[in-house]
Amino acid sequence: MLSSAAVTLRSSRFAYFAPSARTMSLHVQDMIFRQLFDRETCTYTYLLADAKTKDAVLVDPVIELAERDANLVQELGLNLKYAMNTHMHADHITGSGLLKKLIPGCQSLIAKASGAMADVHVEHGDKVSFGNQTLEVRSTPGHTNGCCTYVSHDGKFALTGDALLIRGCGRTDFQEGSADTLYDSVHSQILSLPNEFSLYPAHDYKGQTVTTVAEEKVYNPRLTKPRETFVDIMNNLNLDYPKKIDVSLPANKVCGLYNLPEDLAAKLKDQ
Ligand code: FE2
């Protein structure tokens, strides 16, 4: 049985751990928030919109599901401003290019440091606006050079891409990855946010949907370790070479375009 002191400690700690109601409801604090899932790559795509003006953004769309996303945008009567990415993905082709084709007026957006083509390039400190909603761009390199985290201060959440996953983090063994850099990025730009902020990753392989700053500060099995231990863990993961990397990276380098080079389109068909 827990002592009353322990109960107090647990309850104050867990005050921030309750899952956000945001995923359950359509309209919260004037923002429409939808978390969409790709079963094949376990990628989350986020549709965010200003509930009043209907201006919207899609974050980390997947090419195979671009039509699903475009349909939802249409059904909700939204005006999609940006199809944007947290980084240049290795495991899937971004839906940005196809969405531009499906929804005229939509622009692609990615960090300048990613080295990928897009209509709009952002850098650390920039703001991405849609209606009265704003996302702050925070540069969080380490998984790739061009990773960024998008923070909604009003909504008290951040989209962390692959920099921080629920109880994990993105691998650092390709795409100019660096465990040392990732450690700095996560601690200085993500875990420095208020404890109650919800964190939404670009992937989850175990069926979890959201975490909080407070939870990851206590339970992340990698990032709660000292830097040297973290670097050692990351350098010894011995992960398989990503299945789709040879197709995904060249395609994502031109993420603002839909007309893929012929050889790439042929490779895609074979998959
Ligand atoms: Fe990634």
Tell me about this structure.
It contains eight helices and 13 strands. With 271 residues, it is α/β, with parallel strands linked by helices. The chain is globular, with a radius of gyration of 19 Å. The strands form two sheets. The chain has a seven-stranded mixed sheet with strand order 1-2-3-4-5-6-7, with helices on one face. The protein has a six-stranded mixed sheet with strand order 8-9-10-11-12-13. Fe (ii) ion (FE2) binds next to loops. The site of fe (ii) ion has 6 residues, from loops.
Which descriptor suits the 3D outline? Answer: globular
> Which residue ranges are poorly predicted, with pLDDT under 50 across at least 5 consecutive positions?
1-16, 18-27
Structural class: alpha/beta
Number of strands: 13
* Bound compounds: fe (ii) ion
CATH architecture: 4-Layer Sandwich
Helix content: 25-40%
Count of helical stretches: 8
Q: First CA to last CA: what distance?
A: 55 Å
Number of domains as seen in the coordinates: 1
CATH evolutionary superfamily: Ribonuclease Z/Hydroxyacylglutathione hydrolase-like
CATH class: Alpha Beta
